[in-house]
Amino acid sequence: MKPILLSSPLQGFTDFRFRNAFQSCFGGIDTFYAPYIRLNGRFVIKPAYELDIALNNNRTLEVIPQIMTGKVEEFLFVTKYIQSLGYKELNWNLGCPYPMVINKGMGSGLICEPTKIDEILDRVHSETDVIVSMKMRMGYHNAQEILHTFPILNKYPLKNIAIHARIGKQLYNGPVDLASFEECLHHTDHTLYYNGDITTVSEYRTIKEKFPTVNHFMLGRGLISDPFLPQMIKENNDEYPENRIAVFERFHDMLSHQYEQKLKGDKHVIMKMFSYWEYFAKTFNDPKKVTRRIRKSKTLDSYYDNVKEILDHEYELAYSASWR
Questions:
Q1: What angle do CA 218, 221, 227 make, to 5 degrees?
Q2: Which of 30, 89, 111, 184 matches a 20 to 30 Å C-alpha distance to 274?
Q3: Which among 272, 314, 269, 267 is positioned nearest to 289, based on CA atoms?
Q4: pLDDT digits (tens, 9 = 90+) for 192-220
Q5: What are the residue ranges spanned by the domains of the chain?
């Protein structure tokens, strides 16, 4: 059975522009989770959120909106909004680890408050017919926190619970906690999705072997670093296609040209694309050299010249390796 692969939402990276360019060039992702909608106490949907989940911008994609909140009124407001667009499911983010979120009682900082989680889920399920799914960490301070939420979560017909196998305080540092994720499997009847540090086919195989009953895997940073990864996992193949550089170049150009239309000025486009290159470079032969070259770009013309030199060099290395 082939795994079901999902794109984890990364704020500032996996918007509709990225999703569409990715889907056009690579494939392998079954469902994309949109970066979270956050109201900050104002009951207004920002234009950026509207664009990101607008049906016209997601015609070829299976997309699920996500909310970041610790307030039931906000949850209900966003539920009404996404249902007006035709969406049936809303994912609740209890996974974000960053202090600016935690300090406002949201993200992984809410996992230690099962009573509050219960109050929100009770009203959402009582007052709407939206399908709720969860994106969580093990907790914020320790990996036992999530276990205290399961008696609450088990009361509700959640579609699934995706768990990033770290605690919030770790951010993205240190190893994933596979032993604690395994413990979660024994404390809930809900379908669990695994998330965390799947950046190669080999790492996927290791996780799948350890958790044979899990068949849903969420890819986040690994997806951005290596957009070939989902399809390679689906095919259980760790060999890149022969036209790897050409495919990546097409993807890159689709993405960068969309940001040219969105952002004003060469500097802003280059800065945006540099944030992607900090991930892209990880699968190139000399990541530090790649990011140094991109950083030197002062104009869009020089940026595209630098990208061409990087890709030409990678092509030459791949071509010469094939004749060894």
A1: 85
A2: 30
A3: 314
A4: 999 999 999 999 999 999 999 999 999 99
A5: 4-234, 244-322
Query: What letter does residue 37 receive in the DSSP assignment?
Result: B
Q: State the CB neighbour count (10 A cutoff) for residue 19.
A: 21
Cβ 259 vs Cβ 17: under 8 Å: yes
Q: Where are the alpha helices (DSSP H) in the chain?
A: 16-25, 47-53, 72-85, 99-102, 114-127, 145-153, 178-185, 201-210, 221-225, 229-234, 244-262, 266-280, 287-295, 300-322
pLDDT average, residue stretch 226-249: 96
Greatest CA span in the chain, whole angstroms?
65
pLDDT digits (tens, 9 = 90+) for 243-292: 999 999 999 999 999 999 999 999 999 999 999 999 999 999 999 999 99
| Residue 58 pLDDT grade (very low, low, confident, very high; cuts 50, 70, 90) | very high
Among the CATH numbers 3.20.20.70, 3.40.50.1010, 3.40.190.10, 3.30.70.2190, which is that of 4-234? 3.20.20.70
DSSP 178: H
- Rounded CA separation 262/265 (Å): 10
pLDDT at 318: 58
